[in-house]
Amino acid sequence: MAVKAVLELAAVQNPGEITTTEIAAQMGLSQGGIFRHFSSKDEIWRTVMEWVATELHSRVARAAESANSPISSLEAMFMAHVAFAIEYPGVPRMLFGELQKTESTPAKIAVASLLERYGKLLTLKLEQGKSCGEVDCSISTEAAVALFVGTVQGLIIKAVLFGDVEYLRQGAPEAFALFRRAIRKSI
């Protein structure tokens, strides 16, 4: 599968330098063989980013549904996102590379779509939290969504920067505890 091959390669090298020859070799194909499945490298990247968007959103949505309260849903989503980044360390590297491009690419569009759907789910959980009294009604939902995503991404950036996946595992509970304190209703 091309997605698996690209993610494995991105975990150990600069995603921008991955060639179709390397992807094909990782898949056990010739370079010509990969082009029987994909018309271009951009199509491969789009396919990978669409898979990432679908899989990550599916995991955080399942995590949200498995919890019994809005705050618990948010925590489950946070931990599911971190677990995804730990399982697929090539994904953050690819995302950061795509987001640096000034032009609109199919992969960048897939990431934007993910952020929109993810934001809607976070908004729903925050609004549910406000309705049941778990979340402070005076906070901006939009700001809380940005804080949530930024907190997860901050952990991931630091882990990628230092090549320390263990930092994600250890830092996630404390980081979410700070987020929870920021949004909780004062008693």
TrEMBL record:
One annotated GO molecular function: transcription cis-regulatory region binding
Domain of life where this protein originates: Bacteria
Record feature DNA-binding region, as residue ranges: 19-38
Keyword Manganese: no
One Pfam family here: TetR_N
Transmembrane segments: none
Segments forming domain HTH tetR-type: 1-56
Keyword Cell inner membrane: no
Cited InterPro entries: Homeodomain-like_sf, HTH-type_TetR-like_transc_reg, HTH_TetR, Tet_transcr_reg_TetR-rel_C_sf
SUPFAM superfamilies linked: Homeodomain-like (SSF46689), Tetracyclin repressor-like, C-terminal domain (SSF48498)
Keywords noted in UniProt: DNA-binding, Transcription, Transcription regulation
Protein name: DNA-binding transcriptional regulator, AcrR family
Native organism taxonomy: Bacteria, Pseudomonadati, Thermodesulfobacteriota, Desulfovibrionia, Desulfovibrionales
